[in-house]
Design goal:
Blueprint (H helix, E strand, L loop, with lengths): L5 H32 L1 H12 E6 L6 E2 L5 E7 L2 E4 L7 H12 L3 H8 L6 E2 L8 H10 L4 E4 L2 E4 L7 H4 L11 H5 L1 H4 L4 E6 L14 E3 L6 E4 L3 H18 L3 E7 L6 E7 L12 H4 L3 H4 L9 H10 L9 E4 L2 E4 L2 E4 L7 E4 H7 L2 H11 L1 H10 L26 H8 L8 H12 L3 E3 L4 E5 L6 E4 L4 E4 L3 H17 L13 E11 L2 E15 L6 E8 L8 H19 L20 E3 L8 H5 L6 E5 L5 E5 L5 E3 L3 E6 L1
Parallel strand pairs: 2-10, 25-28
Antiparallel strand pairs: 1-8, 2-3, 3-7, 4-5, 4-6, 8-9, 10-18, 11-12, 11-23, 13-16, 14-15, 17-20, 18-19, 21-22, 22-23, 24-27, 26-28
Length: 638
């Protein structure tokens, strides 16, 4: 047997020792690298395998009117989540959830037995708090309830096309909800907890982590709910009375471009949009619909003729025989037989088509169309709402004598209601064309800080202040003495213009199918509001804008001015009464008079006296108010 020397043994031991030291150094280095360099990353990966997340929606920003009245807010609507691996008895869980939610247990069973980490129960999305509490009290393993919300429109159909609506995940789908979706939407938060690797047991030794959701910004509008309420009321009344194909109303501050109200019919309830056709909820008619404006467009021709000094309303005369020959075509006045000899102020009051044909010829096609373009027709106004149309105008190269004549009185062109409101506002506000807008501010709900504030945008000056003053006076006489008398409002100086436009389809005008409109403003000396009102094909009535649209618009204007706190004026142009209308009289001041003085006096009205005193201390209506002859005046004796 060969003996190994001590030296060899020692060498081998040293080699093994060194080899061991190297191996353990490598292991130590690796462990250190894993511990210190990769530790956080590996821990996070492990947590991801163990973690389960229940989302919490950030609250969508409210939409408010200019005075802070909420017109789109949120309601609590919890959502049920299930962790399938934590469910001990799927059949029993499905049965109990089905009873609590009032739905088919088979559907729930299919959802909670899916091979996935977490399931959002379809039938348990955005449920009532009562149902959520019922489910919570069942204490079912693996069933969780997350805080959620759904959009709530407290005024129902109110401002529906403007507001739009949201989808099942609170995402904006139409209207302002879509246009400002990125700022209205909140950011999701979540509660994160940990389970074992199989996901069946919650780890009690690891605390839950909560990431707070972030609420969306609140949107404040230029809309005044008091004005909007009046508009909605009048459109509802008109719908019941005339059964029209459609109705449109817009109210705007002519000095800023701020939209004070907007509505149309047919309408819908935003949170029940599935109950109506897409054609109803997807078309905001005041900015989307285009049609021939009719006589309301004559305001633009009038503005151009006055600015270019082509007419003196008081001195220039015109004879209307009832028709005019232009380029081989006969164009008729709405009044058979014509208006005879009249001043051009009377041409405006009578809405005389041949008179406006004359103004168009005096201007010439280039000048007239330059003004039409400058007033904003033929292009979008830029209002901050989706779906705006631009309208259609004649190409100047294709405008002959007939096209020039018909354009001058509002036929053959296609415009939108919002274009007309912006243009007429420029005509009466001193001559400045403003960009219409409806969003006023974006506000951080947590701090109250204004993140964005819109201010009026003046696009250009289109006419002089002197021309605007003449237009205001002419249109005030239209309401007091002309075709717009049904828009007259006692106590307020109203100006405006009626419109009766025959509808066209496939290049032909339809029989007995008209859009009847009125556009008005007040007070005429210092306009605070412009209102456009259109009634599409009303039934069982005369087809004149002055008869159908004017009284509705007049009511909206008068009630809106009172709601806005605009004081009445005593300097009205006296309304010209027709033979069939009851004359108006001013109520005298009877306060301080004795009973004997009153009884022995002569009045054009009835007296209703109450109280036992000797002198009048109060009367209604107030002194100076205009009332119809035969009205009753109530007096209170001291």
């Amino acid at each position: 047997m060969k003996r190994v020397s001590n030296v060899t043994v020692r060498k081998r031991l040293v080699f093994v020792l060194l080899f061991g030291i190297v191996i353990f150094s490598i292991i130590d280095a690796r462990l250190g690298y894993v511990q210190f360099a990769l530790g956080d990353m590996l821990t996070n990966r492990a947590k991801e395998l163990w973690s389960r997340s229940i989302p919490f929606e950030g609250e969508r920003g409210k939409i408010e009117d200019r005075n802070g009245v909420a017109i789109a807010s949120n309601q609590s609507a919890p959502t049920i989540f299930v962790l399938p691996r934590q469910i001990k008895d799927p059949a029993e869980t499905a049965e109990k959830l089905g009873l609590a939610l009032g739905t088919d247990k088979e559907k729930i069973y299919k959802e909670i037995t899916k091979a996935t980490l977490i399931v959002r129960i379809k039938e348990g999305r955005k449920i009532s708090n009562e149902k959520a509490n019922t489910v919570r009290n069942l204490r079912l393993p693996g069933v969780y309830i997350a805080e959620d919300s759904k959009r709530y429109y407290p005024f129902g159909r109110y401002l529906s096309h403007v507001l739009g609506f949201t989808g099942s995940d609170n995402q904006g789908l139409t209207g302002l909800e879509l246009y400002y979706d990125d700022v209205l939407s909140g950011k999701k938060g979540a509660v994160e907890f940990y389970t074992d690797a199989k996901g069946k047991q919650k780890m009690s030794d690891m605390s839950d982590e909560y990431e707070a959701p972030k609420d969306g910004l609140d949107l404040k509008l230029t809309v005044d709910t008091k004005v909007q309420t009046i508009i909605e009321r009048e459109l509802d009344n008109a719908e019941k009375k005339y059964h029209p194909d459609g109705l449109i109303a817009i109210a705007m501050n002519p000095n800023t471009g701020e939209l004070l109200g907007m509505s149309s019919r047919p309408t819908y309830q935003p949170d029940k949009y599935r109950n109506v056709s897409q054609e109803v909820y997807n078309r905001n008619l005041p900015i989307w619909s285009t049609y021939e404006p009719g006589s309301t467009f004559k305001i633009i021709t009038l503005a151009a003729a006055l600015e270019e000094k082509k007419v003196d309303l008081e001195k220039d005369k015109f004879y209307d025989s009832g028709a005019v020959e232009v380029g081989g075509s006969t164009l008729h006045c709405w009044k058979r037989g014509g208006h005879g000899s009249e001043t051009f102020l009377e041409v405006v009051q009578n809405s005389c088509n041949p008179g406006f044909v004359e103004l168009g010829e005096r201007l010439g096609k280039k000048a007239l169309f330059d003004y039409i373009h400058n007033f904003g027709f033929g292009k979008r106004t830029g209002v901050d709402l989706s779906g705006e149309a631009s309208g259609i105008l004649f190409n100047l190269n294709r405008v002959g004598p007939v096209e020039l004549a018909t354009t001058a009185f509002g036929q053959g062109v296609s415009v939108t209601p919002i274009q007309q409101v912006a243009a007429v506002s420029a005509a009466v506000n001193g001559g400045i064309l403003y960009k219409p807008y409806i969003a006023k501010e974006l506000v951080d709900p947590s701090t109250g800080e204004v993140v964005m504030r819109k201010t009026p945008v003046a696009k250009k000056r289109v006419i002089s202040e002197n021309t605007s003053k003449q237009i205001r006076y002419a249109l005030e006489t239209v309401v007091a003495q002309g075709t717009g008398k049904n828009a007259y409002v006692d106590g307020y100086r109203v100006g405006g213009k009626t419109g009766t436009a025959q509808k066209a389809k496939n290049g032909r005008y339809l029989e007995n199918n008209y859009v009847l409109s009125f556009i008005g403003f007040a007070p005429a000396n210092n306009p605070k509001i412009v209102v456009y009102l259109a009634v599409d094909n009303p039934k069982n009535t005369v087809q004149f804008g002055g008869q159908v649209a004017a009284p509705i618009a007049g009511t909206i204007i008068g009630d809106s001015l009172r709601a806005m706190g605009v004081k009445p004026s005593k300097n009205q142009i006296e309304k010209e009464k027709s033979y069939f209308e009851t004359p108006s009289v001013k109520v005298p001041n009877l306060i301080g008079q004795s009973k004997d003085e009153i009884v022995n006096g002569y009045y054009d009205f009835k007296l209703d006296i109450s109280g036992s005193g000797s002198k009048v201390v109060k009367q209604s209506p107030e002194p100076g108010t205009k009332v119809e002859e035969g009205s009753t005046i109530r007096l209170l004796m001291k």
